[in-house]
Amino acid sequence: MEINDTNNHVLRSLFLTFAKIGAFTFGGGWAMIAIMEREIVDNHGWLTKDEFMDQLAVAQSMPGILAVNISVAVGDKIAGTRGTVVSALGTILPSFLIILAIAVFLTPDVIKNNPTVAAVFRGIRPAVVALIIAPLVTAWKRAAITWKTAVIPIGAALLIWSGIPYVSNPILYIVLGIAGGWWCFGREPGRREEDAK
């Protein structure tokens, strides 16, 4: 009985945490990362800072929504398959219900012509930019990028932004990153540990 109560408490905590993340972050993706890190790492200790950065890199490389990918990984680590389902539902459900309410009560004409709604969106835009920049700076510091290695993310970002066919495809840089990581850290047993020292 006590084990079931503990499991239910963990599942409830996962659901409520990811529901809060899903309900109170605007812009999705990178705009969610600062709040996710605070909840997952600082408040609950489900992942260490390094584990969170690793999960972020994997989640960004995988198909699907960034926040859902991270919630699935955390849920699986904490409570297995049930944790995965509960965490994913917690992340998705608030956004789904909010969008459903908007679709029912706010038609495109109302959104376009209502000065109050327009003012709300104008206020949200700069806040979302700040929410995106904050985790980028944190990720930059934690990834130990120096001015010598900064050419890699800056160069990749500029090439993606360029719009040149094939060269601007983000999938190319994901594949190159995987290949480069394997080449530098995965070829020899213990190589990663030696490089980390």
Structure characterization notes:
By secondary structure, the chain is mainly α. It folds into two domains: 2-144, no CATH class; 145-197, no CATH class. It has helices at residues 2-23, 30-43, 49-61, 66-105, 108-113, 115-142, 151-162, 170-186, 191-196. The chain is globular.
Low-pLDDT segments, ≥5 res: none
User: What is the mean predicted local confidence, pLDDT?
Assistant: 79
Q: What percent of residues adopt helix (DSSP H or I)? A: over 70%
Structural class: mainly alpha
Instruction: Quickly count the helices.
Output: 9
Task: Count every beta strand, where a strand is a DSSP E run of 2 or more residues.
Answer: 0
Whole-number tally of structural domains: 2
Shape: globular
| Percent range for β-strand residues | under 5%
Sketch the major β-sheet.
none
> How far apart, in Å, are the first and last alpha carbons?
46 Å
The Rg value, from CA coordinates, equals 20 Å
Write down the secondary-structure element order.
Answer: HHHHHHHHH
Report a brief summary of the structure:
The protein is mainly alpha-helical. Helices cover 80% and strands 0% of the residues.
How does the SSE layout of this entry go?
Elements: H1 2-23, H2 30-43, H3 49-61, H4 66-105, H5 108-113, H6 115-142, H7 151-162, H8 170-186, H9 191-196
Helix pairs in contact: 1-2, 1-4, 2-6, 3-4
